Amino acid sequence: MIFGVGICLVVLVVLLLIYAFPMYSMHPLVSGKIEGTDIIAIKNRINNLFFIPSDKEWIVIDAGSDAKRVKQEMERLSIDRHKVKGVFLTHTDYDHVDSVTLFPNATIYMSKQEEQMIDGSTNRQFIKKNSLPKLDAFNKIVYLSDNEVIDLYKHKVRIIGAPGHTRGSAMYVLDEKYLFTGDAFKIADEHILVHPYTMDRKIAQQTIQSIKDELKNYEKVFTAHYGLIENDIK
User: Fold this and answer.
1) pLDDT over 90 for what percent of the chain?
2) What is the pLDDT of residue 75?
C-alpha cells in the first residue's frame, strides 16, 4: 500500500515537472516601449501583451493571465484602459485572455476557428474547456476569417490563421510591418519549434513550415512568450 502511494507521488511529481519545465525557457520582453516603435509591451508573468497607440485610443494584442498586474503596469505607463478600443486575441488559453475585463469599451477580435474553443464544442485537453472572463455589456466579439483585414482608426490589422496550438490559433499583422505570433511557435537557439502545451503538434508543425519564409517579410516579429525576433531564424 505504502509502495503504491509512493509510486503515485513520484508519477505526480514527474508530470508536474514536465508541465512546468517549459515555462523556465520562456523570456518575455520587459514592460516598456519597444525601441524604434510606438508599441508598448507589458510583461505579465511568463508572457507579453502589446499596446499599440492610435491617436488617443489603443489597440491591444492578447490579454495576459493576471488582470491585476496588467492594470498596475498600465497605470505606471499612463495607459488609460477605457481608451482601449480593440483587443485581438491570438487564441483563448487562460494566459492570453484574463485582462479583457479591463477594457469595457473594446471590441474583442479572434479567429472564427477559435469560436469552438469557447462555445463548449471542443475541449482544450481532456475535459478542460477554454472560456473568456465575464465581459462588459458593451463588449462584443467579432470572429475573423483568415486574412481578413480590420481598419481600426489609423491602423490595419490582418489575421493569419496559425492552427495547432489551439484549433483556431492565429497571428496578426499590423500595417503589414509587424507580426504578432501568439503561441504559433517557440524559439530555442534561433530555431522555431512547436510551442509547449500544443493541442495538435502535427498541425502546429505544418503551420511552422508554412510561415517560416513569411517571417522575413516583417521588420519585427513579436512572440507572446519568447520576446522579439529581429534576426534570421531557422
Assistant:
1) 78
2) 97
